[in-house]
């Protein structure tokens, strides 16, 4: 025990030393990286992410079932997200996305970007304020009815807040006089806020009036090429959901007011889903109930399977548009014979905020959020012992562990938080950690003080608890995929 105590004392000294160089505040109140003073320490120590400093408004913590606004229904993901300080309602169908949600959203956007770039997508950003002229040209100004948020500028000109951008992107492409068949397929996409005046916004981020969507538009030389593009986007969607660990079904769908000939929805089966699906128990066939004419129970594809009804949350939608918009806006390209030809189009949506909420809806327990690991706001939470407890001295080891993880495992840089609220019991902090759903929670207690230090690791997604040496821990966390 003697050498251990010596080590602990040394660490206490280091901690005191570190206390002097904790993050400084600059004038705007933001934490700055601490400068290491020119002393015996050559190692640059990064500021630690402290739970006590994270903005997750705790007054929302015990709102329970009464977190709903008047006239607004609630569901598991909405309740858990509000309780954990991830979102806060502002006005019907609109939410503050609090910092942890923004971190998760940014990760989700990176995964989507990777998949879209993988099929040749190029990201752009189009105005949210859309001129009514474009929408009148496509006749959707009237067709969209009350769903469209409309407004007038100071000159009396009509505008809408874009719920989708077929008109805008097609006009953009039409303006390029020199588009060649060699540049096709052209896949343009954006991830932006969209607006839809929902009659009954509900279920938190699942059906809001302001939300993030990824919308991609494709331009091809022929119908055949457009179908190939369509298939490649569908495969990218399937890969995306697989990477997130979400079970998603691709179902035949109605083309709705977007128009076109072929359409699929990507649905996450869930009890609170608003779409009714029929899924074949025998083959891959599945369809939205709306698209099937009779109350059929036999599968049209394999003829032998029985269709079973399930509810789903729509998280993606693909449309083959043909020449519908390219014809109206004259989006042409010069073909191999150097003649102008009208482009074949497709459009492909993903509800970004909806994927986040739907994932929480289907993965979480009633008490705590469970994230797709890849997009959890933080991967690891380290819990030091309660202040004044008999293993108090392990607190130094917890702090040291946070630094070691950040330095040894580059993928976990900025992903490890220290729950420094040591006035609270470990049990109480564990409960909070379970509510927030960090994929890995490490309890630094008695075991860490032993000759061969051991750490208690709770893998929240699997509900498993393990006791690991430092090496074992580094090995486990070194395999965590981050984005
Ligand atoms: Zn079948």
TrEMBL record:
One of its GO terms (biological process) is prolyl-tRNA aminoacylation. Residues 106-372 form the Aminoacyl-transfer RNA synthetases class-II family profile domain. The keyword DNA damage does not apply. Its main location: mitochondrion. Keywords: Aminoacyl-tRNA synthetase, ATP-binding, Ligase, Mitochondrion, Nucleotide-binding, Protein biosynthesis, Transit peptide. GO terms for molecular function: ATP binding; proline-tRNA ligase activity. It catalyses: tRNA(Pro) + L-proline + ATP = L-prolyl-tRNA(Pro) + AMP + diphosphate. It holds the Pfam family tRNA-synt_2b. InterPro entries: aa-tRNA-synt_IIb, aa-tRNA-synth_II, aa-tRNA-synth_II/BPL/LPL, Anticodon-bd, Anticodon-bd_dom_sf, Pro-tRNA-ligase_IIa, Pro-tRNA_synthetase, ProRS_core_prok. It is found in: Mitochondrion matrix. Its EC number is 6.1.1.15. GO terms for cellular component: mitochondrial matrix. Gene3D superfamilies: Anticodon-binding domain (3.40.50.800), Bira Bifunctional Protein, Domain 2 (3.30.930.10). It is an enzyme of class 6 (ligase). Mitochondrial aminoacyl-tRNA synthetase that catalyzes the specific attachment of the proline amino acid (aa) to the homologous transfer RNA (tRNA), further participating in protein synthesis. The reaction occurs in a two steps: proline is first activated by ATP to form Pro-AMP and then transferred to the acceptor end of tRNA(Pro). Belongs to the class-II aminoacyl-tRNA synthetase family. This is Probable proline--tRNA ligase, mitochondrial.
């Amino acid at each position: 025990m003697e050498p251990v105590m010596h080590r602990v004392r040394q660490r206490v000294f280091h901690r005191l030393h570190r206390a002097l160089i904790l993050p400084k505040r600059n004038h705007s109140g933001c934490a700055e990286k601490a400068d290491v003073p020119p002393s015996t320490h050559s190692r640059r120590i990064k500021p630690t992410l402290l739970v006590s400093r994270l903005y997750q408004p705790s007054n929302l913590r015990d709102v329970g079932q009464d977190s709903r606004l008047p006239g607004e229904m609630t569901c598991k993901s909405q309740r858990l997200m509000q309780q954990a300080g991830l979102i806060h309602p502002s006005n019907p169908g609109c939410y503050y996305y609090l910092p942890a949600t923004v971190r998760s959203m940014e990760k989700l956007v990176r995964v989507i970007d990777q998949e879209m770039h993988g099929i040749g997508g190029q990201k752009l950003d189009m105005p949210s304020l859309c001129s009514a002229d474009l929408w009148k040209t496509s006749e959707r100004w009237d067709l969209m009815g009350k769903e469209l948020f409309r407004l007038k500028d100071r000159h009396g000109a009509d505008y809408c807040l874009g719920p989708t951008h077929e008109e805008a992107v097609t006009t953009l492409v039409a303006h390029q006089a020199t588009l060649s068949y060699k540049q096709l397929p052209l896949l343009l996409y954006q991830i932006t806020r969209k607006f839809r005046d929902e009659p009954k916004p509900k279920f938190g981020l699942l059906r809001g009036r302001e939300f993030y969507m990824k919308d991609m538009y494709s331009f091809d030389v022929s119908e055949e090429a457009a179908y190939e593009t369509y298939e490649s986007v569908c495969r990218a969607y399937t890969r995306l959901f697989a990477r997130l660990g979400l079970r998603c079904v691709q179902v035949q769908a109605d083309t709705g007011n977007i128009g076109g000939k072929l359409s699929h929805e990507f649905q996450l089966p869930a009890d609170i889903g608003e779409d009714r699906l029929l899924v074949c128990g025998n083959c891959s066939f599945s369809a939205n109930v709306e698209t099937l004419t009779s109350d059929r129970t036999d599968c049209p594809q394999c003829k032998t399977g029985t269709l079973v009804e399930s509810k789903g949350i729509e998280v993606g939608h693909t449309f083959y548009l043909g020449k519908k918009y390219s014809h109206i806006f004259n989006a042409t390209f010069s073909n191999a014979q150097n003649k102008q030809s009208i482009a074949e189009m497709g459009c492909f949506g993903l509800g970004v905020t909806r994927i986040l909420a739907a994932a929480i809806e289907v993965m979480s327990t009633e008490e705590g959020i469970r994230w797709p690991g890849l997009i959890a706001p933080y991967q690891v939470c380290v819990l030091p012992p309660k202040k004044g407890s008999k293993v108090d001295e392990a607190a130094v080891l917890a702090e040291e562990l946070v630094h070691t993880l950040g330095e040894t495992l580059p993928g976990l840089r900025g992903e490890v938080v220290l729950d420094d609220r040591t006035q609270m019991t470990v049990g109480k902090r564990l409960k909070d950690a379970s509510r927030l759903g960090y994929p890995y929670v490490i309890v630094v207690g008695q075991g860490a003080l032993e000759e061969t230090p051991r750490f208690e690791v709770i893998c929240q997604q699997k509900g498993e608890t393990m006791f690991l040496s430092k090496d074992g821990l580094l090995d486990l966390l070194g395999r965590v995929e981050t984005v």
